[in-house]
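Can you please make up a protein's amino acid sequence together with its fold in token form to help me picture the idea?
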Amino acid sequence: EQEQQEEEKKELRKQTKEEIAFQKQTNLLWKHKDALSKAKTNTLKESLEENNLSSSGGRDRLINRIANSLLFGCLCACKKCGEDRWRYTAKGYVCGGNVSDWEPCDVITTNPPRRKWEMPECLEEFGDYNKYKFKKIKQLFPPQEEEKEEEEVKENQEEEMDTQEDTKHKQKEKKPLTGHSIAVAGKLKQTQSVLNKRIKSLGGTVHSGSVNSSVMCVISSEKEVEKEKNKKVVEALKFGVPIVSIDFIDDCEKEKKCALLEPRLLACTSTVVEPANESDQLKKLKKKTNASSLGARESVSSASTTTATT
């Protein structure tokens, strides 16, 4: 009985330490929220967009999203399904994405993938953010209680509604760059923020990570290509991703469709596949592959017949 009582006391002390640590983290979050509450809604949305995060939802949700990213880092796509549809719960983050059309993602984690929060200029005047330096810390989770679980359910429902609204909007209005991922590299005649907005207004996704074959093109300049010092430019050349000038975006806006890459091409180490002709090229490749397979089967069949005759 004494041993059991001592174990219970140890467990109680452990819980108390966890609660104290969680309370300190909560206070720090509220400190960020109070500072962010002084910013205008458009400023909050712009800050999220510059960090390639969703700017949907009410003002409180925007503030929560930024405060969370400032402290713990920006949430990234799930490594299993590739979707960024995390929902916060007392047990951890639950992924609401889909591995396939018939299989939902089942990832639950207290340590989801995150990346560095980049402090935009529009937020620097609030809460001494001009001195802000990102230092990632591990997010703590509260002890489970009925009231908190009810709040989670309500928050998850609101998050799901935001996601559904985004999906409906995307389905309703297909834009010139819908479904295409575009990276921006180096110093250009327009700021990163302005260019990001233009790409997103055309329906495109701004790719902030390493450049690979999933990226349609990289927007850059002749100087950056000649220097070959920018990381994204080097990666684009390595993987054969077309590097085009900012005029490509101008063309898309004027033509109101995905413009050709070739006229604005600065560099490419492989054959340029135009987005507009991509499906046709894939069909031709599929026919060629099928024809080659059929020819191979006929050769094998002919060889077998000759052997049998002999």
Notes: Strands lie at 74-75, 86-89, 92-95, 108-109, 114-115, 181-184, 205-207, 217-219, 243-244, 265-267.
